[in-house]
Amino acid sequence: MTTKLPIARSESVFEDYKSALNDSQAAVEANRCLYCYDAPCIKACPTEINIPEFIRKIATNNVRGSAKTIFDSNILGMSCARVCPVEVLCVGDCVYNAMGVPPIQIGKLQRYATDIAYAKKWQYYEAGKATGKSVGLIGAGPASLAAAHELRRYGHACTVYEKRDVVGGLNTTGVAPYKMKADRAVDEVEWILSIGGIDVKTGVSIPDDVSWDELAKKHNALFLGFGLGPDSELRVPGQDFGGVYGAVDYIEKMKLGLVSVADVKHAVVVGGGNTAIDAVRELRGLGIESVTMIYRGVEIGMSGYQHEWNAAKEEGVRALWRTLPTAFDGRDGRVSGVRCISLDDQKQPINGTEHALPAQLVLLAIGQAKLDALVKAMPDVKTDKGRIAVDANGFTGRKGVFAGGDAANGGKEVVNAAAEGKRAARAIHEYLVGGGSQ
Amino acid sequence: MTDITSNCGGIISPNPFWLASAPPTNSGPQIMRAFDAGWGGAVWKTLGQPIQNVSSRFGATTWKNNRGVGFNNIELITDRPLESNFREIYEVKKKYPKHSVIVSLMVETREEWKEFIQRSIDAGADGLELNFGCPHGMCERGMGSAVGQEPKVNERITSWAKEFSTIPVLIKLTPNVSDIRPHGLAAKRGGADGVTLINTIKSIIGVNIDTFVPEPSVGNASSNGGYCGAAVKPIALHMVAQLAREKEFGIPISGIGGITNWRDAVEFLLLGSSNVQVCTEVMLRGYRIVEDMIEGLTTYMREKNFAKLDDFIGKSLPSYSEWGDLNLNYETVAKINADKCIGCQLCMVACHDGAHQCIHPNPNGSRVPVVDEAECVGCNLCQIVCPVVDCIDMVAVANGFKPASWNNHIEAGALLRPKRDRTRIRRRGCARSKIDYLDRVHDALPRRQREVRTRGGDAGRRATRP
């Protein structure tokens, strides 16, 4: 299985927002780490990477060991180094913050070690002795990959079912290209799969192509890591005009192929979450002069990370707060503007505040549909607000069925998916060696 | 008015900062630039019969990305023509009459010593420094530290120099001896006006783990060199102090060894140096460092109300005591300042693994560790590892016991405070984590060792007289 990406992709114009460290920079930064005991940065990491230890190993020039320390906790350590919101995780909890000293650039150091490991093609893991058990994993995103890798170390056979032609899930199709481009995500998938024994079937939709019953017959356990569904729609007049897209959908087009913004002078992104912020930064990066974010709440109330929004502002994005789109205007079937109305403190429209913005491109970043309908057919798998309900180990309540990643957590970071996948794999292993089979 | 004029064995300089005999004093143009920068004196790179140097001469210890924390060299004495050196000495002295130029010498025969001393005096030198310290290359030819390690030879050559010299003679001593005192006293018996110490320490700075050749590598081999730089300061301070407090000694000391700034210099003066010499830090950072040295020293003296250097030279010597005279009833405990603590817990791991297991996780969940003061022995390790300035204080405890040293105890039965009982864990008031920790450690020991540990504690208590 190899994913072939088109050479011509719009995302290629982006440069890294956080640059890689060279050897000298890494040495200086690694030596600055205090090597805290029971360090807060470890606790802030969902995968609990032993951060002081991997940094010390960079400082002593034991880079091979450093990368192993990272991968031992998080097999997606290479992509997480790039895409993690470290400002609110490990770096945010570095004790240097309390000292009024710039915190250690943990993400950059992690990228340094893992990039070298990839460049040198270091391999650390072997599959365990075959147990004769088989696990089916639905979705080829971070959660399933982390789970499959861990399961292979225990010796269980794995089959991953992916409805797309590309593997890696949102890591490949959704990460902002100034953090990581699709080819790098695919490199990671291949690196993970090199443990062997993970059969990836792309272009296979569950349960349409293979039913739950068939899966249950083929496998001793299942892991549901199918993520979220399509972008939510804004049900207002004009939503079918050309030039109005779901943000996740549009970002995927840009990452896996070409989008044309030549005729776009003004773009509008609706939403205030991290997808919205990614989208506005990406549109600016593609060269669109005027990019406006429209959000029904206020700046401090947005769910997107403040550090990301600050970067967007620096890049020239503007925002309209307490604003609701009411309709899209269009010409010849294509969008030409957004009509809006201002909202009061209770998020109710204020009469007389109707106004309009020109827009040749509109992205909707107001959430993604939940895929709970997929599991309706499975008794005992419960859902909660569209998410698959699981216990701390990813167990769904149905014998042999586990879940993790966005499908279960409703949409979090890659690092959460990696942690949940690995945790579920351990639980699956315990279930399998405990003799469970169905 | 603060006066930092220094007098070392009769050599008067505008300040106590001399450049040590080394690459920074290799030539007249260099020394002129150094004097312009503010150095008070310079000891000329050692003159002797012409030698040939190797290429690849220096090696350094790098610690936590700090290069040159320690330093070593396998360079020998000057490799420039003697005529050039003596001519430049003359030119420097003519241009800088108030600055001190001391000529370092290293030759073999009495005739050579006579000739080199006379030529130095003729060139206008303010003093001589006999290099009895170099621990590499020259000692294999019977010079340098080969002389410094033999008190009789040291005394004989010193007396020759005094016979031939009309200017002060300093003897530069090697630290590559088990006790510095006989060597300082030999120089004194020979009539020296003062001694300089320490020269470099015999060393191998490192090994290239890819080529397997020690450093600095000269092709496919290396040789032991002389260790210096910031890392050697403690060794130098000890040797300076040991000689300075020797009652029979009583001649000036020019202190060298790991001095990088004014604070280091003050420490050397407090332990009895009349002035200081600097090499490695200048090699690494340039002559310009003297500006801060002069400023720092002057400010310090003003703040302490010292009008001249003599007001504090040797001031710390009375506090340099024998261990047996230390007050065993003096007691301190660590106090962590919660407001300043950043929660790195380096004190906790250091105490648990490297000291006395008395700093524990905070039971209320905060990351500020707590000190079990009843168990703290006041060792300072937590304060040493703490990255925050003034976060951990070592506070003296009034325990009610009168001062008593081991010697008082042995000679007069002075009462010592009870030792901390390290085998019987006080369960009440002791953090749970500590009990768990110590229980785990104890349980992990083989049975015999466990018994020995327990007995050792009892035996230790009996040894302390009530």
How is this structure best summarized?
The complex is a heterodimer of chains A (438) and B (466). Chain A folds into three domains: 17-119, Alpha-helical ferredoxin (Fumarate Reductase Iron-sulfur Protein, Chain B, domain 2, Orthogonal Bundle), CATH 1.10.1060.10; 134-229 and 369-432, 3-Layer(bba) Sandwich (FAD/NAD(P)-binding domain); 244-364, 3-Layer(bba) Sandwich (FAD/NAD(P)-binding domain), CATH 3.50.50.
Task: Summarize the helices and strands and which ones pair or pack.
The complex is a heterodimer of chains A (438) and B (466).
Chain A: H1 23-32, H2 40-44, H3 51-59, H4 63-73, H5 77-83, H6 96-99, H7 106-119, E1 134-138, H8 142-154, E2 157-162, H9 170-173, H10 182-193, E3 198-202, H11 212-218, E4 221-224, E5 244-246, H12 247-256, E6 266-270, H13 274-285, E7 290-294, H14 306-314, E8 318-320, E9 323-331, E10 334-342, E11 355-358, E12 361-364, E13 383-384, E14 387-388, E15 401-403, H15 406-409, H16 414-433
Parallel strand pairs in A: 1-2, 1-4, 2-3, 4-15, 5-12, 6-7, 6-12, 7-8
Antiparallel strand pairs in A: 9-10, 10-11, 13-14
Chain B: E1 6-8, E2 11-13, E3 17-19, H1 28-37, E4 41-47, E5 58-63, E6 66-73, H2 82-95, E7 100-105, H3 110-123, E8 127-131, H4 145-148, H5 151-164, E9 169-172, H6 181-189, E10 194-197, E11 201-203, E12 206-207, E13 214-215, E14 225-228, H7 233-244, E15 253-256, H8 262-270, E16 275-278, H9 280-285, H10 290-303, E17 332-336, H11 346-354, E18 359-360, E19 370-371, H12 381-385, E20 392-396, H13 406-412, H14 432-444, H15 447-463
| Mean pLDDT over the full residue set of chain B | 91
Number of strands of chain B: 20
Give the N-terminus to C-terminus distance of chain A in angstroms.
29 Å
Report the total helices of chain B.
Answer: 15
pLDDT average of chain A, as an integer?
96
Rounded to an integer, what's the Rg of chain B over CA atoms? Answer: 26 Å
Counting H and I runs of at least 4 residues, what is the number of helices of chain A? 16
Major beta-sheet overview of chain A = 5 strands, parallel
